[in-house]
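Quick start: what a row looks like.
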Amino acid sequence: LSTVLARSVSATYNYLINYRVVFHSHTSHKKTTARYFCLAVMLMILSACAVTGLTMLLPNLTPVIAKVPVDIMLFFLNFFVQREFIYRKKK
């Protein structure tokens, strides 16, 4: 329960900060919230699959170590997707 609550609070805070401060979005919350939630789920799945795949490919690599490069790459993917598809300003 505490993990779910912490993730929920963290996701809500990150969404609002990204919406207002990072991307200065004026897109409706209805659209951006749904997109952000889908992105968060996809990133979680991608992270788990990539870490598992790396540790299977390189058996001497621990999941903790594998998670570092995976999450760094996902950070940049996450930023790009948010900028281009979630909070995109109308032209």
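That is the whole record. The chain has three helices and no strands. The chain has a mean pLDDT of 92.
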